[in-house]
Amino acid sequence: MPDDCIFCAIVAGDIPATKIDEDDRVVAFMDINPATRGHTLVIPRQHADNVLEIDEEDLAAAVKMGQRIAKRAVRGLGADGVNLLNSCGEHAWQTVFHFHLHVIPRYQGDPLQLPWIPHPGDQEDIAAAAAVLRSTS
Ligand code: 5GP
Ligand code: ZN
């Protein structure tokens, strides 16, 4: 565990966080800069930098916890939808390098926008990328 990891410090109880749930593998707490009301982060207790590094069982536990919180956001907060989001690497917008799953409740008319404008892709390049992904172990 890196000495300077803020989320490890939250797991250890060394810095405060508004926790909402936890189990033996993961902890869920409120994001300090919520994108919408109820924005929650789910993290493994055991440090892993990102989705490429996290233990598979911890990842499964994080996704299950994310689903539970998503259901609570719909039932309890009246969310109209939910985004589950993970960023891996600085070029993918990751800013805290301890794996975390964002659970972002969505509300009709909320101000969040898709971060990209969808355009039809190049069919040949889609096929070429698919071939690489199929054949890479
Ligand atoms: P990322 O940009 O890595 O996907 O997300 C990092 C998230 O962690 C951000 O949404 C940010 O608001 C949140 N965050 C950063 N520092 C803290 C903190 O000290 N406490 C809490 N609760 N959230 C934090
Ligand atoms: Zn950490």
Question: Which labels suit this protein?
Answer:
binds zinc ion; single chain; alpha+beta; 137 residues; 5 strands; 5-stranded antiparallel sheet; binds guanosine-5'-monophosphate; HIT family, subunit A
Polypeptide structure, described:
The chain is of the alpha+beta class and 137 residues long. The protein has a single domain (6-135), classed as HIT-like (HIT family, subunit A), CATH 3.30.428.10. Helix content is 31%, strand content 18%. It contains 3 helices and 5 strands, in the order αβββαββα. The protein has a 5-stranded antiparallel sheet with strand order 1-2-3-5-4, covered by helices on one side. Strand 1 and strand 2 (26-30) form a beta hairpin. The longest helix has 22 residues, at 56-77. It starts with 5 loop residues before the first helix and ends with a helix. The model has no long low-confidence stretch (mean pLDDT 96). Guanosine-5'-monophosphate (5GP) binds next to strand 2.
Distance between the termini: 28 Å
Domain tally:
1
CATH C-level class: Alpha Beta
Per CATH, what is the topology? Answer: HIT family, subunit A
Give the averaged pLDDT, no decimals: 96
Give a count of the beta strands, DSSP E runs of length 2 or more: 5
The number of helical elements comes to 3
Strand content range: 15-25%
Radius of gyration: 17 Å
Helical fraction equals 25-40%
Q: Report the structural category.
A: alpha+beta
CATH H-tier superfamily:
HIT-like
Q: How do the strands of the widest beta sheet line up side by side?
A: 1-2-3-5-4
* Main beta-sheet strand count, sense and barrel state: 5 strands, antiparallel
Helix and strand pattern: HEEEHEEH
> What is the general shape?
globular
CATH architecture name: 2-Layer Sandwich
Q: Show unreliable segments.
A: none
Bound small molecules, deduplicated: guanosine-5'-monophosphate, zinc ion
